[in-house]
Prior knowledge:
The structure is a single chain. The protein is mostly beta strands and 187 residues long. The chain contains 3 helices and 11 strands; from the N terminus they run H-E-E-H-E-E-E-E-H-E-E-E-E-E. It has one domain (5-47, 67-167): Distorted Sandwich (Deoxyuridine 5'-Triphosphate Nucleotidohydrolase, Chain A), CATH 2.70.40.10. The termini are far apart.
Amino acid sequence: MVLTDREIQSAIESKQIKIEPQLPDPECYSSTSLDLTLSKFLRIWKKSKVVGVDQIVSPATPGYSFNDFSQVYSDPHEIGDDGFVLEPGSFVLGWTRETIELPISARLAARVEGKSSLARLGIGIHVTAPTIHAGFKGPIQLEFCNHGTLRVRIMHGMPVCQLIFEQTFGTPEKGYKGQFFGQEQSR
């Protein structure tokens, strides 16, 4: 069951959904979703500068850690007042300015989806990872892809995605404890 704007607001008031650093403004709600905004921080993937060398990532290797990998093979970038231009074909990581917590006792999960205003310019904000599991806590990491032919400027603080909250059938035995639990914006 998808929560409506009234149910989302009620869940926030009763702390079944926790949002920091501040409560959403009224214009952030649509009939069945809540808009979130872009933080100042991005991670930009490095390109190999060595001719004839292919980089291969093997996430199935024992001991592989995405966080360790991204610290070595990407650079932090802070979005300035002029914004950041997503070039056609580019891929960067970003975060929501808001931190979300979905206590498992609330029996809620969410899906992060892009904004149609960005999608119609060719910008996707998640590749295949829309699920925000019951028990999740942290800012939401976004995977920006520019599939279009135009350069698109993104600004920190702009509405960038929307959460669609769903009630789970029952209370989970365990909350989300995956590798991104409690993630922080990487600087």
